[in-house]
Prior knowledge:
With about 260 residues, the protein is an alpha/beta fold. It is about 45% helix and about 15% strand. It has a 5-stranded parallel beta sheet with strand order 3-2-1-6-7, sandwiched between helices. It has a two-stranded parallel sheet with strand order 4-5. β6, α9 and β7 form a beta-alpha-beta unit. α1 packs across α4. The radius of gyration is 20 Å and the shape is globular. The two termini are about 15 Å apart.
Amino acid sequence: MGSFSVCVHIDRQRYPAIQTGMKSCRNEYQQYELQWPLEDIDVGDFDKIWQEHCEDEQSLSEYACAMRLLAVDHWKKTTPSDHDRIEWCRRTCYEFFRGGGLLKCLEKDDRRRQHTLGGATNGENCETERKRMKTADYNTIRLPFTSKIRLLDVGSCYNPFMEFEDFLAIGIDIVPAVESVFKCDFLNLQVQEPLQLAPDTIDTFLRGSLRSPLERVPREIFHVVVFSLLLSYFPSPYQRWICCQKAHELLALNGLC
């Protein structure tokens, strides 16, 4: 059993508030955008380009302020709640963990596992599976789900999920727009060995032990990892793949990305 993934594509033609907002803030970050001449970049230059990008803190700070302005003063005020990206993520998480979504996925996975193991002539495969599940007890999301939803918001900007009481939201960004977001280059974040602790102790760890700049995080510690308008910023498909792989490593078993 792995972690589950849900993807959403935002159609700018269908949601004109997003397109209008981009135009209204265009002057704020148009100069920043022009610093990415991707058509002139050789394949081997992507790591260097990203490193130089992260070191340009003045431009990144201006961009972060512009994006926060776009999100808070335009999208939030002009976008209907059923089209809002943050509200969509909140509803999806609630439906998955508390509305039966996870249960359906677990039942489907159990049927698949029974079918796969059913042809074994002895109990070896079943015993191996039982041992695997036993070792994953500390970092497995089980039902009923009653704890706070531990959510990692990558490219957070201003940590919009903090306003929801049912979330323990950790926001990270290469240059945060607010102090509640940790400075972190997710592409180069180190993933360490998992913590084998009770859920409330893990919550305490996340609330009190993380520091900026955030350089390392234990594996399998989050229930949800959110990429909101993130992957398109990376100049290389390989870098996007690394981010997706790292998100999967940070998810607890049965988590949502």
